[in-house]
Amino acid sequence: MRVVIAEDSVLLREGLAGLLERFGHTVLAAVGDAPALLAAVAEHRPDVVVTDVRMPPGFTDEGLRAALELRGRRPEPAVLVLSQYVEQTYAAELLASGDGAGVGYLLKDRIGDIREFAGALDRVAAGGTVVDPEVVRQLLRRRRDPLARLTPREREVLGLIAEGRSNASIGRELVVTEAAVAKHIANIFAKLDLPPAADGHRRVLAVLAYLRA
């Protein structure tokens, strides 16, 4: 796939570029600040953008705000955010953009497996959603209202859905049958007033409801 990278650390930027090229991807541009990221995407129209959150000139949330701007453009690029921090102000908005399709947020110090990272990038580029479990936990600690109608076990199941777990994986984690997991998920969909849709789409909507409140 065709990738643009935005990362202010030269060593990490070059390392990411080399890693992605090893997996057969084409790095169209590797830049060090948010304005350069916006310009590179406008010029190259990549399939996916990999960006840090804190970049020049202010080292606050420039990369994340640039990612949000890109998600509002057409064509809308897939975006994978890599950060040392959970920037709560804009993270939920980013993850909700484009109905949660083609977006991810991973913490740098939790990427311990190169192939796992490459797989996450592939899922985002293919229209999937990838969210670091710690990002989910931090965002959801401050967003409890939509969960008021859920039981503790339903909240637990929804948290695992947000991590991208399958029904079988959730069942193994909670030591229950897949049928029990499916029943919990059906209850979650009903209590969050999600419209009838394909199950995969409603899973994304459930996670977004979790993050938007």
Q: Characterize the overall form.
A: elongated
DSSP strand (E) fraction?
5-15%
What is the overall number of helices? 10
Report the major sheet: 6 strands, parallel
Flag low-confidence runs: none
Give the strand order of the largest sheet, numbering strands 1, 2, ... along the chain. Answer: 2-1-3-4-5-6
Alpha-carbon distance between the termini?
34 Å
The beta-strand count equals 6
Task: Write the H/E string, N to C.
Answer: EHEHEHEHEHEHHHHH
Helix content: 40-55%
* Mean pLDDT over the full residue set: 85
Classify the secondary structure makeup into a structural class. Answer: alpha/beta
C-alpha Rg, in Å?
17 Å
Textual characterization of the structure:
This protein has 213 residues and is of the alpha/beta class. It is built from ten helices and six strands; from the N terminus they run βαβαβαβαβαβααααα. The protein has helices at residues 10-22, 34-44, 62-71, 88-96, 114-125, 133-141, 152-162, 167-174, 178-191, 199-212; strands at 2-6, 26-31, 48-51, 78-83, 103-107, 129-131. The protein has a six-stranded parallel sheet with strand order 2-1-3-4-5-6, with helices on both faces. Helix 2 (34-44) packs parallel to helix 3, helix 7 packs across helix 9 (178-191) and helix 8 (167-174) packs across helix 9 (178-191). The longest helix is centred in the C-terminal third of the chain and has 14 residues, at 178-191. The protein is elongated. The two termini are 34 Å apart. The mean pLDDT is 85.
